[in-house]
Amino acid sequence: MALKRNIPNNGLPALPPNLEVESPEILKQLVLASRHLGTLNGLCAAMPDPSILTNTVILQESKDSSEIEGIVTSRDELYEAITGYGKVGVGAMEVLNYTEALYQGMGTMTKRKGIISINLLSEIVQVIKGGMTGIRTTAGTPIKNMITGETTYMPPEGAPVIREKLGELERFINDNNYSTLDPLIKMAMVHYQFIAISPFGEGDLRTGRILNELYLVQQGLLPMPVLCMSGYIARNKLLYHQLIQGVTENDNWRDWILYNLAGVAEAAQHTTSKARRLMSLKAKMEGELKRILGASYSPELLQLMFESPYLKIELLDKRGLAHRQTASTWLKKLATAGVLTEQKKGKTLYFVNNRLMNILTGQ
């Protein structure tokens, strides 16, 4: 039966689709994606300090993911907000909420022995939205053609139906005996199905991207959620929506799966390159700090410089690394030597790790 665009899709079929999807073309792209993801996985496992990757990459992923939804914040505003001083703008708060939601999702999944449940996804969207929300009881937001504006899809309607669809999806995610498909192919299907259900009404797209990250960790493909696919989606946003529509209207899983596998490969390569640059920069800056600060060198200061690229004298004091006068001396020495850059905004003086910022922003 053909899909009626203006009627809620309460007949959304459960996964997996009843057709062959592991074509030679898809399997070829799967090998490539798996290889690049395996390289990233091995690098993460070998890193002596994985936090320099998670703390920086997850924040950039949060920023990119929020920008897909039109939530834009400058890098200055975002990193100023992280220092915990001054007023936090709406855009920066949305990004920080996304970051917290991803970390909380990881923590909850770990506590629940790797299970990704409806309740877990509900917790994630609540953090994203900064308040209580749950399975919607109203009609879902219609999907419209980005050019003509006509409605192309209506999500399922009615809390019992939505819970039924989510229950089917939960089984597909967590029971590896239910489907023998490769996890990367399943991830593409899971993301589509979650978006097609649109269970919460608001925050579904961002929750769906966090679901991707958690699923990769659950399946043992990555030790931490560091595959930054939001940048890839943002660069291919129109195609993303067109391919979702293609699955909905024509069961075109082929192109949707190929799109996702290409995204995994590209994102894995990008994150691998970023991780290597981060490790190299940290080693270089360790030598610089030891030379410039001498006996005052503090590994905790080096760590903080990678956690918060925008440093303030007050932040060092707050973290217990040094009193204000000593902190000021350290930071000014590093700025004079060119390790950090002084940047004044209003009455606030920041000491910026520009080399780290260049890595984070892909420069």
Key structural traits:
363 residues, mainly alpha, Fic-like fold, Arc Repressor Mutant, subunit A, 2 domains, three-stranded antiparallel beta sheet, 15 helices, 5% strand
Chain-wise SSE layout:
Blueprint: H1 24-46, H2 51-68, H3 75-82, H4 90-111, H5 118-129, E1 143-144, E2 151-153, H6 159-174, H7 183-197, H8 204-218, H9 230-235, H10 237-250, H11 253-293, H12 299-307, E3 310-311, H13 313-318, H14 324-336, E4 341-345, E5 348-352, H15 354-360
Antiparallel strand pairs: 1-2, 3-5, 4-5
Helix pairs in contact: 1-11, 2-4, 3-4, 4-5, 4-8, 5-8, 6-7, 7-8, 7-11, 10-11, 11-15
Architecture overview:
By secondary structure, this protein is mainly alpha-helical. It is built from 15 helices and five strands. The protein has helices at 24-46, 51-68, 75-82, 90-111, 118-129, 159-174, 183-197, 204-218, 230-235, 237-250, 253-293, 299-307, 313-318, 324-336, 354-360; strands at 143-144, 151-153, 310-311, 341-345, 348-352. The strands form two sheets. It has a three-stranded antiparallel beta sheet, with helices on both faces. The protein is elongated. The chain starts with 23 loop residues before the first helix and ends with a helix. The mean pLDDT is 90.
Radius of gyration: 22 Å
Strand order of the largest sheet: 3-5-4
Determine and state the CATH class of the largest domain.
Mainly Alpha
Q: What is the overall silhouette?
A: elongated
> How many angstroms separate the termini?
50 Å
What is the helix/strand order?
HHHHHEEHHHHHHHEHHEEH
Mean pLDDT: 90
Count of runs of 4 or more consecutive helical residues: 15
| Unreliable residue stretches | none
Total number of beta strands: 5
Q: Which CATH architecture of the largest domain is right?
A: Orthogonal Bundle
